[in-house]
Fold:
Amino acid sequence: MKLGIINSAFGQAGVDTITGLKHIARIGFDCVDIFTEAMTLSKKEKLGIIRTCDKVSLPIVSLPVVATGLIDFNDPVRAFHVERCKKFVDLAAEFGAHNILLVLGEYIWQREVIPPEAQWQWAIETCRAIGDYADRKNLDIALELEPFRLSLLHNVESMVRFVNDCKHPRVRANIDISHLVLSDTSPLDLKKLQGKAIHVHLSDCDGKVHGDLPPGRGIVKFEPYLQAIKELKINGVVSIELEYSPDPKRIVEWVQEAYTQTDRLMQLTGLRG
Structure:
């Protein structure tokens, strides 16, 4: 698998997009995931990203998008977010990416008032519509597993059920290693995602709360998870996800550390290549 990173690591530290992409290429990443807003990205910004990635030989593989409105109980809200996700699909196609990484969000009102089955069905319907559109562009949808109590996709079992219920060849799963740890998921459970997972996120955490730290800064034992991922034979990318560096002025060192440690782990398991 290739080793990439979500460029938001630099954006959250106040580094402009083009400079961040140049750092990512110089450090040695194989590719990048671009975090942006497809509805408002200007033509100038878009061309700047494309030209910079071409110049530094940094392929774009994925576009993360948080679209919690896809499971909203209001029909117009869901319709708007389907159209918004289609804009991300269009942008991903222009970038030559492989997928959009989709975060569906959480059940509202503690799964009361509105039956949770209704939100589940709305998610199925909206993801099928986005999947149909993505298929025309030869792109996939990678669904994020979020380890929070009320997340729609909060563990491997709910992810497998959703992909099976959706029954769409373009709607697949993302594997996030720290999210698996936070949801008490064993590496052995990853075999349930055989043929369903297409993308991977990697970060560390303290085992209690969402962290997105460089490997080695938390408690995650990565090797068993990476070995299980290797056995899935995913033709995809391991993308590092870093959030909110404690010292933004040292963000380059923060990303370099994450790259070095992740590369070491992937080499140990024979996963990078």
Notes: The mean pLDDT is 96. The radius of gyration is 18 Å.
